[in-house]
């Protein structure tokens, strides 16, 4: 399951959740996050040199101190953060599961 906020106010944090289950036969090979088909986060538990990687995508600032693979925290979202977010899970048997959710960044008028 993927949980992405439907809307966030500009400057807020956004929490992106990607839930997955591992069983005895199939373990996690990789977990990847995309915004509008551009990869911005990759987790590969078997890659000892770079288990977590973050890629430069406009509007995306991952807070690695608060994030873990299944729960990504985006810092200070802005209008460029609006888009379709996809979590892609690849199992050790190379089965791919993916889910999409839309997030819109808004700014309410000042009173």
How would you characterize the overall build of this protein?
This protein has strands at 2-3, 7-9, 14-18, 28-35, 38-43, 52-54, 71-74, 83-91, 96-106. The strands form 2 sheets. Strands 2-9-8-4-5-6 form a 6-stranded mixed beta sheet, with no helix packed on it. Strands 1-3-7 form a 3-stranded antiparallel beta sheet, with no helix packed on it. It is an all-beta fold and 111 residues long. The mean pLDDT is 93. Strand 4 and strand 5 (38-43) form a beta hairpin. It is elongated.
Brief write-up:
The protein is mainly beta. The protein has strands spanning 2-3, 7-9, 14-18, 28-35, 38-43, 52-54, 71-74, 83-91, 96-106.
Keywords, please?
111 residues, mainly beta, 6-stranded mixed sheet, 3-stranded antiparallel sheet, 9 strands, 46% strand, elongated
